[in-house]
Amino acid sequence: MPVFQTDALSKIYPSVRALDELSVSIEPGIVGLVGANGAGKSTLIKLLLGLIQPTEGDASVLGYDIRTQGLELRQYVGYMPEHDCLPPEVNATEFVAHMAQISGLPAAAARERASEALRHAGLFEARYRQIAGYSTGMKQRAKLAQALVHDPKLVFLDEPTNGLDPAGRDDMLDLIRRTGHEMGITIVMATHLLGEIERTCDQLIVIDAGKLLHQGSVADFTAATEVLEIELTGDPEALAARLVAAGLEATTEGRSVYLRSDGDAPFDLVRDSVVELGLGLVRIQQRRRTLEDLFRIETPLAETALTSGVEA
Amino acid sequence: MTTDQGSQHAQTSDASSSIYDLGYRRYEGARLGRRQAVLALYRESLRAAFGLGRSTSAKIGPAILILFALVPALIQLAIAALVPVGEIELTSHHDYYGGVKFILALYVGIVAPDIVGRDQRNRSLTLYFTRAITRYDYALAKLAAMTTAVLVITLLPQLLLFIGNALAVDDFGGHAAENWDLIFPIFGTALFGSWLLASIGTFIGAQTSQRAFATVGILVAFLLPLTVALVVVQEIDGGWTDLFVFISPLDLVDGVTYWMFRVDTQPMDSIVAMTDYALSWYAVAGAAFGLVCTGLLLRRYRKVQA
User: Fold this and answer.
1) Fewest beta carbons within 10 Å, which of A114, A219, A289, B218?
2) Given this model, what pLDDT does residue B262 score?
3) Alpha-carbon span B137 to B126, nearest angstrom
4) How many Cα atoms sit within 13 Å of B55 on the Cβ side?
5) CA angle B86, B90, B93 (to 5 degrees)
6) Based on the number of CB atoms within 10 Å of its own CB, is A38 exposed (0-12), middle (13-18) or buried (19 or more)?
7) Mean pLDDT, chain B, whole residue set
8) Which residues from A are below 8 Å from B14, CB to CB?
9) Residue B291 to residues A179, A274, B152, B206, B264: CA-CA distances in angstroms?
């Protein structure tokens, strides 16, 4: 059974279509939700939490209807916002236990669960310290702990590595992986860093301008060798233009042409074209597709917005 | 595929990991949902308002004001204890709120921004709205917490006064039995006044995350109409200008108090005595005032960005 599914889900604000007929179905696992700022990630999350009403379409989360059963479904869903959201003047245990009660847990169970969640997030030693004294990394962990304290079946993480240094980022991604795999909690992780998705997630949703661009397994996506890199001396544009004229999808970057090749790669055509154009051929290489290719080839428009945020 | 990965991962971590890793425990216990959530929010807001579970400096402000509000009642008690003869009635129930009106305003101005402003300041509203409550639940729990906080300086001193007066006549049981009909107006005025003041305080406090602005705003909302009403009613003789008495929430509390205690002759310095409206009008105006503010509070939380 899918953890959540949406059916032509749309949210239209007076000035913008924040979400445009989105239909996805998500199986348990760790899901990367990728899109540029303003692509509709937050709108999708808010809709799935039952916080805002869709303009059109339907969706169910854990079997609950988002239009009518927001309260019930939110008992089983966790949310970690992108921004700072912790009160500085209380200690972490007290705060996380309070949040457990707001999720409907009895007081005694809430305290027990708070310890459990803080231990899982790696804050066990610091659990009685005031949050004001926490580092950025510890605050991110505390935010994760409050999202997990009521043992949800589904957790939304909004940019969970925001503001962390490389080591802190690795720790957080590792924690997310363990949370998803060992605890069996489905995680939807919104991010604009494709590298994080490749390292952490097993499913992928890509949205752009409110529309679904791609949905599927990360493994399937990266395993396939579907891109041909042709490195040249001379003008790659000329070759790209010729290949496009031949009905292929090609783009250029630096001194290389990237050619999308489903099935048999058109080596002969490439060779002949290079000779005819008088270019020098340095190498032809079949590449593993990375998530960046998704934006490079399928939507040149999204590329500019997204690749700037890609991890090295 | 996911499950394969999962079990594999779990095995390796079981094998390599260490003494302290107890493994993740699931929660199978009760989920009490909305009611538990709203009660927890109410309780925690109230605790926070008095600085409980927080630093000492957070406790000082409210504690001092509560003490001040209790002073007249405490004096009464002390006198009753020291001079146990005859009937000495220093402060009567129906004059009490008039005597402490500035303390009431100050108290609401200090406590309300704490109850409603804190979560906006910390940006933790999101965490509440993504849980087992609605935005209206949140707003009403906060209003209830604020009302309860105000009850501490309305109902508590009134009850102390009642005990003090009873002790003063040297026949505690007799006095209490004779005046049992005061109990209803004591509770009635305390509840009504606390709700009215709390609805105004939380409504204004919820408009900003800046504590200082909220406090000033609340003080202005109480004290400016109080002054304007007094000047207008006192200086302009008769006529429709007397209606200005209804713009001042603190005067409304006074009027409602006289109404509930059935006091026909008010002290001459009371603004209620300067106008000749039926006392029940104050109840109607006060209820309308409180309902409008409660409605505006709900509206604010329907719209506020989480």
Assistant:
1) A219
2) 84
3) 14
4) 8
5) 115
6) middle
7) 84
8) none
9) 47, 80, 22, 16, 27
Question: Are residues A207 and A34 in contact, defined by beta-carbon separation less than 8 angstroms?
Answer: yes
**Cα-to-chain-centroid distance, residue A212:** 13
- Among A281, A291, A129, A117, residue whose Cα is nearest residue A194: A291
Lowest mean pLDDT of A126-130, A146-150, B18-22, B118-122, name the range.
B18-22
Q: Which amino acid is at A260?
A: R
Tokens of B165: 């007066």
Q: With an 8 Å Cβ cutoff, are B26 and A151 in contact?
A: yes
Per-residue tokens: B184: 């209803």
Tokens 């001042």 locate to: B248
**Residues 6 or more apart whose Cβ sits within 8 Å of residue B99:** B72, B91
A102/B5 touch (CB, cutoff 8 Å), yes or no: no
- Cβ atoms of residues B290 and B203 within 8 Å: no
- Report how far residue B283's alpha carbon sits from residue A88's, in angstroms, rounded to the nearest whole number: 42
B32 to A87: CB separation less than 8 angstroms, yes or no: no
Confidence of residue A310 (pLDDT cuts 50, 70, 90): very low
Length of chain A: 312
Least confident of A283-287, B149-153, B156-160, B230-234: A283-287
| A158 burial level (CB within 10 Å; 0-12, 13-18, 19+) | buried
Asked if residue A176 has pLDDT above 90, the reply is yes
Q: Is A268 within 8 Å of chain B by CB?
A: no
What are B116's two structure tokens?
Answer: 């409603």
* Helix segments in chain A, DSSP class H: 41-48, 70-74, 92-102, 107-120, 136-148, 166-182, 194-200, 218-223, 236-245, 267-277, 291-293, 300-307
Closest Cα in chain A, distance from residue B113 (Å): 15
Residue among A52, A93, A103 with most chain B CBs within 10 A, to mutate: A103
Taking the C-alpha atoms of residue B260 and residue B278, their distance in angstroms, rounded to an integer, is: 12
Which parts of A215-309 fold into alpha helices (H)?
218-223, 236-245, 267-277, 291-293, 300-307
The residue behind tokens 């709700």 is B195
- Tokens representing A181 are 């795999």
For residues B162 and B172, what is the distance between their CA atoms, to the nearest angstrom? 10
B152 Cβ contact list (under 8 Å, min separation 6): B66
* DSSP 8-state secondary structure symbol assigned to residue A192: S
Q: Strand A249-253's sheet: what is its strand order?
A: A249-253, A256-260, A227-233, A280-287
Looking at B236-279, list the stretches that DSSP marks H as alpha helix, in order from N- to C-terminal side. Answer: 249-260, 271-274
Q: What's the start-to-end Cα distance of chain B, in Å?
A: 37
**pTM score, two decimals?**
0.82
Q: Is the ipTM of this complex over 0.90?
A: no
Q: Give yes or no for residue A293 having a pLDDT over 70.
A: no
Report long-range pairs for B85-93 (Cβ below 8 Å, ≥24 apart): B85/B170, B86/B168, B86/B169, B86/B170, B87/B168, B87/B169, B88/B168, B89/B165, B89/B168, B91/B161, B93/B158, B93/B161, B93/B162, B93/B182, B93/B185, B93/B186, B93/B189, B93/B257, B93/B261
> With the C-alpha atoms ordered B149, B153, B158, B160, is the resulting torsion angle positive or negative?
positive
Supply the pLDDT for residue B167.
Answer: 76
| pLDDT (tens digit per residue) in B38-94 | 999 999 999 988 888 777 887 888 888 888 888 878 887 787 777 655 555 567 888
Token pair for B157: 């001193």
